[in-house]
């Protein structure tokens, strides 16, 4: 008979220490930022002292923990989560849905998408079809992952003129997110994307070329090469886990030819 071994969840002290080390902070540095004694922090990390709910949240602040991780930290300490996690379709999220629709509609005729923490597509405006029409239908099945659609060989990758540069930009962004959140699913996604083939040189360090101030997305299209700049917006004061993890990525034409093609498509 084979015994099954179940890994125990980390204690609050172990979780705090892991996050502190991930943020490359010493006990002294974190204690100064949290305005507590190093001795007290040491006792919490080793389990000699059980932190209050207020202390858990006080330490989570300078550790810059996402709301989801603050809730997990509270659970590890034996407290109920304080940050709600409402489905986007919930009645209390009506104002959020309205704001998202307004942003997406107002951005027409330029593409814009809303994604969750795993870069899964939540919503988009009609102009996004300029990009999604280039991808295999199976990649667009829900939940479609916008990074996978971008870099997969059956996605946008064969149509991206500066694939190595754009791929390097996306993977650098994702790597920073993995480091910030410690999210295992994001780490798995990063590993998957890095395994995709790329026949274009990928810069090890993002350095601007002559006259460049951002990394553009250069797309081969039947109307000629299109160039886009992108921005990412988040809600500024979220107190809900779902809301905190939403991002709106908006694409803008980087030249007049691209702007003209987008305007012409909108008139059809």
Automatic annotation (TrEMBL):
Name of the protein in question: Helix-turn-helix domain-containing protein
SUPFAM superfamilies assigned to the protein according to its UniProt record, in alphabetical order: lambda repressor-like DNA-binding domains
Species annotation: Micromonospora coxensis
Listed InterPro entries: Cro/C1-type_HTH, Lambda_DNA-bd_dom_sf, MLTR_LBD
SMART domains: HTH_XRE (SM00530)
Top-level taxonomic group: Bacteria
MF terms in GO: DNA binding
PANTHER family per UniProt: BLL4672 PROTEIN-RELATED (PTHR35010), BLL5781 PROTEIN (PTHR35010:SF4)
Positions of the HTH cro/C1-type domain: 16-70
């Amino acid at each position: 008979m084979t015994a099954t071994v179940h890994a125990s969840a980390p204690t609050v002290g172990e979780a705090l220490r892991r996050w502190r080390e991930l943020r490359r902070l010493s006990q002294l540095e974190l204690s100064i930022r949290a305005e507590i004694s190093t001795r007290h922090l040491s006792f919490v990390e080793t389990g000699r002292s059980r932190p209050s709910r207020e202390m858990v949240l006080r330490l989570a602040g300078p550790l810059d923990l996402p709301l989801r991780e603050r809730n997990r930290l509270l659970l590890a300490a034996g407290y109920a989560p304080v940050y709600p996690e409402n489905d986007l379709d919930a009645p209390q999220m009506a104002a959020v849905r309205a704001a998202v629709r307004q942003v997406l509609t107002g951005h027409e005729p330029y593409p814009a998408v809303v994604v969750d923490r795993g870069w899964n597509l939540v919503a988009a405006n009609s102009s996004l079809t300029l990009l999604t029409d280039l991808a295999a239908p199976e990649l667009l099945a829900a939940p479609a992952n916008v990074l996978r659609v971008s870099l997969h060989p059956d996605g946008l990758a064969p149509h991206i003129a500066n694939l190595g540069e754009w791929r390097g930009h996306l993977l650098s962004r994702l790597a920073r997110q993995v480091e910030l959140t410690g999210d295992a699913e994001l780490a798995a996604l990063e590993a998957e994307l890095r395994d995709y083939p790329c026949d274009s040189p990928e810069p090890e360090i993002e350095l601007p070329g002559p006259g460049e101030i951002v990394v553009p997305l250069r797309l081969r299209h039947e109307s000629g090469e299109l160039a886009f700049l992108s921005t990412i917006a988040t809600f500024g004061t979220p107190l809900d886990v779902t809301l905190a993890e939403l991002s709106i990525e908006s694409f803008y034409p980087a030249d007049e030819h691209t702007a003209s093609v987008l305007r012409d498509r909108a008139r059809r």
